[in-house]
Amino acid sequence: MDKETKDTSNPTREGATTDLPHDRISIERFRQAFPRARWNDRLNAWFVPGRTAEKRIGRWLAEIEAEADRFADEKGRDAFAFDRIESRYLDAAPAAFQIRTPYSRRVIDEIREIPHARWDADRRLWTVPYRSFEELRQRWPAIEAAALRSEPEARRARREAIKGTEEEAASKARTRERRQKRYPVPADDNPPLERAIGTHVGVIYFTGTDGELAEPAMIDAFYFPASDGKEYVWASWRTGSLEELVTTWPDRSPPEQSELDRGWWMPTLEELRVARRNARSRRRAEERKDKSSGERTADHP
């Protein structure tokens, strides 16, 4: 670092510091935007004097990021023009890709893995910027296959195919059991109440138990393999709110086999991420329902 760019002034003077990529072009552009900037050896960062330095640096960084995004969008748009994705579920709009499919949990999970993908609640579709085209192209076969399976005709065909079979009976039984919102826990090792708990049905909040015994056959069929000789009772549960799940501290390690056998454990970060996404989806659905109800009330006083 040459003497002309090194900051040897009082380190307590007004200003702000920033760290930059150590490439020549970035530093030259920074020096052009902030000619009074000096390198501070003690802080190992660039120092910009002035009361508004932090805001000015923030604006400059935002402009650089936006410029990089525009360049990445142009590259993605060119890549799409060269290798198009032809699908009735995908529309290449001027600003971004637009994805509209039948509801599918698999589709949602795949799209959420694409960087910068956003759900547009007003238009009921997903948007993906052109800069994320490579990730979109990699995941598109799985997205389209899941969307096709979720079409009403495909769903009806599957229902007709299993009508009257053991598979249909088992599916209906699973649905009925899940609606009861009960879960088997060891009679001598109950989970803590009203805190996020990892289970074989996801992250839930246990609310209590009346001591009713759970049949091993029911546990094996719908939840997890029951341990021989162990007594289980039914515990009631609820889903967690977004606020509760966001403030829950995750366990650092995955559950041990003994915890999986027990049926409950402290949730990991990945489990909490899934639960938080589901909580956000429930909140958005409730907000849309309330909005729709309010609009109907206004139309019909």
How would you describe this structure to a colleague?
With 301 residues, the chain is α+β, with helices and mostly antiparallel strands. Helix content is 46%, strand content 18%. It is built from ten helices and twelve strands. The strands form three sheets. Strands 8-11-10-9-12 form a five-stranded antiparallel sheet. Helix 3 runs antiparallel to helix 4. The protein is extended, with a radius of gyration of 27 Å. The N and C termini lie far apart (73 Å). 19% of the residues are buried.
Write a compact overview of the structure shown:
With 301 residues, the chain is α+β, with helices and mostly antiparallel strands. It has helices at residues 24-33, 53-82, 105-112, 133-149, 152-162, 166-179, 216-222, 242-246, 257-262, 269-299; strands at residues 15-18, 38-40, 45-49, 90-92, 97-99, 118-120, 125-128, 182-186, 196-199, 202-213, 232-238, 264-265.
Give a topology summary.
Elements: E1 15-18, H1 24-33, E2 38-40, E3 45-49, H2 53-82, E4 90-92, E5 97-99, H3 105-112, E6 118-120, E7 125-128, H4 133-149, H5 152-162, H6 166-179, E8 182-186, E9 196-199, E10 202-213, H7 216-222, E11 232-238, H8 242-246, H9 257-262, E12 264-265, H10 269-299
Antiparallel strand pairs: 1-3, 2-3, 4-5, 5-7, 6-7, 8-11, 9-10, 9-12, 10-11
Helix pairs in contact: 3-4
Low-confidence stretches: none
Cross-sheet strand order for the largest sheet: 8-11-10-9-12
Order of helices and strands: EHEEHEEHEEHHHEEEHEHHEH
Structural class: alpha+beta
Instruction: Profile the largest sheet.
Output: 5 strands, antiparallel
Mean pLDDT: 84
Secondary structure tally: strands: 12
C-alpha Rg (nearest Å): 27 Å
Tally of alpha and pi helices: 10
Global outline: extended
Q: What amount of the residues lies in strands? A: 15-25%
Q: What is the end-to-end distance?
A: 73 Å
Regarding quaternary structure, what we see is single chain
